[in-house]
Amino acid sequence: MNFRLRSFHFHSSSEEATLRFGRALGAVLAPGTAVLLSGGLGAGKTLLARGIGEALGAARVRSPSFTLVNEYPASACTLVHVDLYRLEPEDVENLGLQDYLDDLEARVLLVEWPERWETLREGDVRDVLKIAIETVGETSRVFRISSSGAKADGALRDLRRALSVQERS
Ligand SMILES: Nc1ncnc2c1ncn2[C@@H]1O[C@H](COP(=O)(O)OP(=O)(O)O)[C@@H](O)[C@H]1O
Ligand SMILES: [Mg+2]
After folding, report:
1. How many CB atoms lie within 10 A of CB 65?
2. What's the domain range around 46?
């Protein structure tokens, strides 16, 4: 999928900075949004998801590598966290992720290894934030974020604003 509407990048130089970034993102995310988290093993996808979960008022987010799908009731929505790392394309199809997309209104869907979801098409979900994480050093990460859909565009704009305030304070 290609989302060229809006994008920016954020640099994190520590685990804590990534968590703060995740909290800032969680604070602006609206239910009905899918967040696609790509990046290699240890990039910080789950850590980012934990920050998002904290801001949404969910229980502590843990890696869904073994459970595949975790659902966390949160304040204003249910956070659904999926890790497709170990899955073959046909296993991904059997997870029923399409059902989440069809009924996303009261949920935020976070997907690690979204490239494994081969049948996902741009038109399947209205509001998407795509985050590609690049490991540039032991504790150094670059997050490239782009959005598609009015709600996701709004979240991206608010996130940008919140981060620039964070930087100035
Ligand atoms: N700036 C950073 N942001 C995120 N994680 C970092 C950073 N620096 C070091 N790390 C380490 O990288 C690992 C990221 O783990 P995790 O979030 O589980 O990655 P993933 O889910 O992408 O495989 C953790 O061990 C964390 O301590
Ligand atoms: Mg992970």
Report:
1. 13
2. 6-168
CB 148 within 8 A of CB 127: yes
Does a structural domain hold residue 124?
A: yes
In a domain, 1, yes or no: no
Smallest CA separation from ligand 1 atom 3, residue? 15
CATH of the domain at 25: 3.40.50.300
Q: Which residue has the tokens 């998801």?
A: 49
Give the closest residue (by CA) to ligand 1 atom 6.
15
The pick from 47, 82, 133 for probing ligand 1's pocket by mutation, whose C-beta has the most ligand atoms within 8 angstroms, reads 47
Span from the CA of 42 to the centroid of ligand 1 (angstroms): 5
**Coil, helix or strand at residue 58:** coil
- pLDDT bucket at 126, cuts 50 / 70 / 90: very high
Structure confidence by residue, pLDDT tens digits, 52-86: 999 999 999 999 877 899 999 999 999 999 999 98
